[in-house]
Sequence to fold (1214 residues):
Amino acid sequence: MATAPVQDYLEQLHAELAQVSGGTIADYIPELTRADPNWLGIAIATADGHIYQVGDSRQPFTVQSISKAIAYGLALSDQGLDAVLAKVGVEPSGEAFNSISLEPDTGRPMNPMINAGAIATTALVRDDRAPPLERLLATFAGYTGHAMDIDTAVFESERETGHRNRAIAHLLRGYGILESSPEAATDLYFQQCAIRVTARDLALMGACLANGGVNPVTGVVALKRRYVDKVLAVMSTCGMYDYSGGWIFNVGMPAKSGVGGGIMAVLPGQFGLGVFSPPLDAKGNSVRGIEACERISRDFGLHLFSVARATSATVLRRSYDCTRIRSRRERSPAETALLAEQGGRVRVYELQGELVFGSAESVELAMLADLAEADALVVDLKRVVAVGDAAARLLLRLAERVAASGKQIYFTETMHLYGFRRLLQKTHAAASADWLRFDDTDRAVEVCEQRLVDAAGVGADVLDGADLHNNYLCRGLSDTALDTVRAAGSERRYPAGAAVLSIGDTAQSVFFVLAGEAEVWVSTGEGGKSGRRVRLTTLGPGTVFGEIGVLDRERRTANVTASTDLTCLEVPFAVLDPAIREHMLANMARHFAAMLRENAELVRHLA
Amino acid sequence: MATAPVQDYLEQLHAELAQVSGGTIADYIPELTRADPNWLGIAIATADGHIYQVGDSRQPFTVQSISKAIAYGLALSDQGLDAVLAKVGVEPSGEAFNSISLEPDTGRPMNPMINAGAIATTALVRDDRAPPLERLLATFAGYTGHAMDIDTAVFESERETGHRNRAIAHLLRGYGILESSPEAATDLYFQQCAIRVTARDLALMGACLANGGVNPVTGVVALKRRYVDKVLAVMSTCGMYDYSGGWIFNVGMPAKSGVGGGIMAVLPGQFGLGVFSPPLDAKGNSVRGIEACERISRDFGLHLFSVARATSATVLRRSYDCTRIRSRRERSPAETALLAEQGGRVRVYELQGELVFGSAESVELAMLADLAEADALVVDLKRVVAVGDAAARLLLRLAERVAASGKQIYFTETMHLYGFRRLLQKTHAAASADWLRFDDTDRAVEVCEQRLVDAAGVGADVLDGADLHNNYLCRGLSDTALDTVRAAGSERRYPAGAAVLSIGDTAQSVFFVLAGEAEVWVSTGEGGKSGRRVRLTTLGPGTVFGEIGVLDRERRTANVTASTDLTCLEVPFAVLDPAIREHMLANMARHFAAMLRENAELVRHLA
Fold:
């Protein structure tokens, strides 16, 4: 496999950044000075879980302040939004990371990204399941996909020298922001800062935040979805200290840096970026880390606000009505004619990707416009990977509107969209049973078609299946010839569910459906393995099956099962008079040609 | 048409907000006190140009500070990034709107959203084309889609009382930030603030920013794309004064408010929101405006960071190889067998929606993985509405990679993607001619197939078209019977480009291709109107056409044109011996059945 463009780019970037000098290694924690100033690791983890990495991307170092973002998310999960906001604000302080920015009256730290706010936040990490440090390590493990540990040398070193942070903790205790021992709070905070990570870990942590809180590699929920926006919000306004405004202006990605030399940046919906290079600038940010983020943002024109538009063009895979594409039910000529005329009253929409407010709104407008002419909407969500809250509510409102107008709407292929199904079921228990009635789009379309057919009184049930004249294969044969056909055949009865033909059977007979229904289907499983059953067509009285197999006296290429009690006339093809056989072959040619002509018509419409 | 869900929601919201009281009308500009405190207008304009509005959404009022965002974008366009940054910073001040937040050394205002920064920004609006006020009004007109004017009473009123702003202008002149008359600068600034807008206008202005700077209704470029992120960045960090951190945390949309009672908010890629209600809170923001933004954000779970993921699932409409779907060129049995075996070496990708970094990266990984087995990639961009900078560069790198490996890549249906084509052409003038060689996907696929066919030496050119045995329609006929067929026919020659059959002609003959090529096609135009020509198939020696029409002696349903010099044997079907006709009909049935069976196989694969 050729090198991926992004890998290629990162290698080039790494080579160039390796030449960048400047900055000094943090020395306020003595143990940090042991870092090699030449270390340089860069990693990008995408929102669908692919990881690119170059250089010292697997070199461990201590996470330091980057942990503040992770701990804030954990505190929100443990305590809820209001309890956390009561102790820590969300306004940028405009000051350096070690400033003591407390609100004058309450002592509430300005935000969770300065040390004061971070110590208060970490003290909020608690539940009954495990001690706080274990909870922190387990949470980090959720983000990185592997067990985490602490660099005890760095922890001990910071513990011995962290007087300013101890002072902050005592001030917080004095204001009642900390409710327990300041010593315990700073110890836990120092341990949190000493967790060992790599640039690769940071990228994946960022990817979890880019992916709605879910680790895209393991599928583990690292952070509840509803708190992801909140963590990204404080990163974007407070993550880079007094460079926050410029950072969003220039780089445009929520980010957090640490004095260990790491930076974690997030482009929501797209990727997490981790950079590691120990030398720091005067503001405590990694010199080459900042440069890497700025370069990547500039070179690719990436920015938080440069998102893909969410409109119908992005999620509507195709839409059609039943004049152009019908269900796989075989229709009589009268039914076909009716649907060609009235099929516009059934409309199908195949959606794709992620539905958010803008895309759902845009698609719904198109559906509502169609509703003036349509009686039924079938919305196929098979290729939709997620339905956002806003989109789910808009679809629910649409369903309510359609139901109120006495028309039908079916959402099909929704089994993977648990939250969306649940919203419909919770809000309208009775109605939703109908809205979610079909998982298979083709079944939903068939039912909608059938309503038109039944209303017009041209259904297959009015056909006499026993009158072989109604069958395309016998069209044009004389009554005498038909008698010969009947005489050559035997009537067969199958109970509902019985197999009539199976793939691989030798094909010798054609079957005329006299009464009941049969389904022609194949399985998606290859080589005898079981797979999903895919319906090719459903047949009623006046139709025929098995004729394709006998053309070349080959093996059956599809299964046929009785879907109701079924009566057929089985006619061995070889025993028929040659003239009759040739006549039937010509009918087949006409019939198949008409079907192929329909395909051509379809191409013309879809082109 | 039923009420759209969003309209419905806004009406309910309007009714509820009408009950909200509190706040006072701005009185520092005397003329503003004439506003009716009950006015309440809300409008949403989507990124694809649909506008929802309720209440007093058409009531004009003065834009006031919201103009700062528009003027900042215009100054960037007129002066460029560096010149503007030299005069005005981008860091939040953490202070109120009328604070005099200047950097101590340089006198540079902290950001363009405080009055000092806005006055400095407006003074940067200048080019040679028109006086600044005209430029401002024309720019606003680009955003709103209609001519704009100034409320002269408000302008005069502010001019008489705006002493603090005059003081600021003089300070700025003292620092050299303003380079011309402070009086002229404040006059222009007061005029800018007095431009009359409606809630509907604000929504559409926001929609322009949500849509990459393009007015989604008129298609006019309101702001150059490269400055949109910058304007949104200062709105997000400084747009709501000292409530900026909380605003992004709670509401999560870049926004700007004005003391006229307006708020403009933007959800990038999705919509602009305009609210108008005169009573203000202590910070100068519309009370009901804030409430409306918070409610809409909360009720729909909207947030800047809650974007749709950009992965292959969101943009890959479908992909296939030539074992499953082939070009519309009719293939001989030998060619068909070869492609069934080796068609996997040609892969086709149909993309859709907007390509950004994450989605392009994800799709490219899939392509690179396929490249191990494939010789040629065809990337169909027909349904792609935009290719972002990052995506364009990734596609370019992919093309370079593929070319370097000696394989082929074709980007098809790209005529609407001007910027992408230009990037390829600019970077690799020679190579891009090949990459962009086909606009029609089917032609590109045909050429790739043909390469496989030629390499294997099984092309139609090795068939003797004059030997009717090679023709499916004659298969199984005796030599004697073939002689009869030949005797009944006449040889016809057509120069390249000549029409052989036209839709509507009476169908009487079948045509055997002896040498050359013919194309079967229809037009997308309905009822005789000219449309796009859509190829149904291309035919070479050893194939037949016109046989479908003669089945029922009907009219021709497609056009056939000689694509090279063409020699055919035209055989009137009716004059043939009945036994030969029946034999041919059976061959047709077999042939069509095989084609339909392929369709079934396709369904099985696609299901």
Q: What stands out?
A: The mean pLDDT of chain B is 89. The domain at 5-299 of chain B is CATH 3.40.710.10 (Beta-lactamase). DSSP finds 22 helices and 19 strands in chain B.
